[in-house]
Design a protein that fits this description.
Helix content is about 25%, strand content about 20%. With about 625 residues, the protein is of the alpha/beta class. It has two domains: about 350 residues, FAD/NAD(P)-binding domain, CATH 3.50.50; about 220 residues, Glucose Oxidase, domain 3. A hairpin with a 4-residue loop joins β13 and β14. It is globular. It starts with a helix and ends with a helix. Bound molecules: flavin-adenine dinucleotide. The site of flavin-adenine dinucleotide (FAD) has 41 residues, from α2, α7 and α16. Flavin-adenine dinucleotide binds next to α2, α7 and α16.
Length: about 625
Amino acid sequence: MLFTPVAVAVLAFVMCPGGSMAAAIHSRDGSAPAATYDFIIVGGGTAGLAFATRLGQKLPAAKILVLEAGPAPPANEPGISIPGLKGSTLFGPYDWKFLTTPQEKINGRVIGQSRGRVLGGSTALNFMVWDRAAKAEYDAWEDIGNHGWAWGTMLKYMLKVENYVKTSSSIVFGLNKGVGTGGPIQTTVDRIQPPQQLPFIPTMNNLGIPTNLESLNGNPMGAVYQPSNIRASNYTRSWAPEYLWIAGSNIHIVTDATVQKVNLQRTSKGQQATGVTLQDGTVYTATKEVVLSAGTFQSPQILEATGIGQTALLTSAGIKPILNLPGVGENLQDHIYVSVAYRLKPGFTSFDSLTTNATYAAEQMALYQSGQPSAFDYNGSNFAFLNWNQILGTDAFMLRLAALAALPTSPVDQTKLSFLTNPAIKAGIPQVEVLFADGYTGTKGYPAAGSPAYGNQYITLLGILQHSFSKGSVHIDPSSPSAPSPPIIDPNYLAKDYDSQAMIQIVKYLRKIAKTAPLKNILVGEYEPGPAVLTDAQILSYVKDTVSTLWHPIGTCAMLPKDKNGVVDCNLKVYGTTNLRVVDASIIPVQISAHIQTAVYGIAERAAELISNGYS
Ligand SMILES: Cc1cc2nc3c(=O)[nH]c(=O)nc-3n(C[C@H](O)[C@H](O)[C@H](O)COP(=O)(O)OP(=O)(O)OC[C@H]3O[C@@H](n4cnc5c(N)ncnc54)[C@H](O)[C@@H]3O)c2cc1C
């Protein structure tokens, strides 16, 4: 082994208080602790670390290697650990910094698609919202052809992930059901509820939206308080590397190791994964399985670089086709949002002051560092999950557009249509999420320094479409197919009228919220888009100029029957292979009405049980 004991010890300390973790983390310097493992996991992100840890616990004699392209970050990296600095790491050193192709229906705009390139993956960058969708949405995964993946199973595994901590100040938040304890990821509801956030839930109530205090238990509908993946003991981010704190010594992690492809060998039972090849040509051998946990954009990239995907595409990239699997990289779905921003009346101090008022920011940082409540604790905890009837009074208009948008041959589209039409479930499935954001988080920008409006305080209401009918793709770049080159990401935003009309209706509804008491009583006026944007045409134009991603891409290695463009079966095995699996967000077949990390962790927990059962 070429890793010095010092390097190993330093990295272990970085990742674990006291450095007592059993799993060994090695920075790649040309070699690895061994060349052969039982299991090789590609990607030390959300799913990869959760899966590796649980697999190692269930199979203590198995040797497990995790290969992560990014580095292990230093201890307490502020941009990662301090909730109030969320977002500051985007397009920084821990980000793959992906971009979409120019999106035709939004004026050719290119949208940033941040993804974690660091041990911990996208949980290092994410915005820490911790929630779940409606029961019927997980049940749909089973109904679409995936035996064993309904709500009951998913909830069981999602609960293993977390340790929800109720603080003395959180009695009002409910959350007595549908939350887990004893898991490695710490969750809690913000201890800070800023004065400007307090009117949000009463305002939703005045619009006829009831408060729901148990929104993580299969019914997210209503105005809700939700937790964040934040540790209540010191208000730092709790994220995927914390799984390693409970991992055994049979887990080896190698960082700075970019996998280019899986090595396959043909057998009578199908293609067998024998290991992986790194960017520098190093080969690691797997005696049992190779598992891709490289995320929605890069698990399909690795499959294609291996020769698994659409034959014509592979040929055009000079890759020898091994398995023709047309679904690889298709079925890309993403949550999109639009926002409206309002100036607060004098007397309110919003999150904006952390960036515009150095004295205030320093005071808040001093409070944070001394363990006192501080704006740097805050992540946001007020949301509303709504259906079209609640937003529009009738869903007839949206149903007509949905019927036009849904392809009869697409089980994914038909599932989304059933979320809107099936009388047994439609009232309980959110189509829109409203997110209350303290401070300005819009698109045109905070007023410039030196301008009279600099120093103004804002709130922003974000409206997120939960089930869009536009679907896109991610594929290798034929001129440079393998990682670390970026894949070609085309989400096809607003390709369907349903989606663009939905965004118009969402803007109108966000404005309605802002015009309703008690929220309206604390607002001076609309900052963005502003009063000049009035007609549907003007709102659509605003949407096209500003709509963006909530960073929830899924579906590109979909768990679906093979004849329905599936990539993996319900055991997460790639069709046509004997021992190659995918375990990450890419296997989620249909969008859910939630921020997706709880589902991704839950998939990893379930995968560890499924796969270990085959070896114990
Ligand atoms: C900015 C942002 C905000 C978000 N906010 C929220 C939120 O508030 N709440 C929520 O629930 N969800 C949120 N999400 C989404 C959520 O974090 C992700 O969906 C989830 O973490 C994805 O997990 P994953 O395991 O699929 O991929 P990742 O966690 O991204 O892990 C993939 C890993 O594979 C590695 N990798 C990739 N290619 C290779 C290769 N060739 N060789 C070796 N390693 C490789 C990557 O470096 C990465 O570490 C957010 C995401 C982002 C980016």
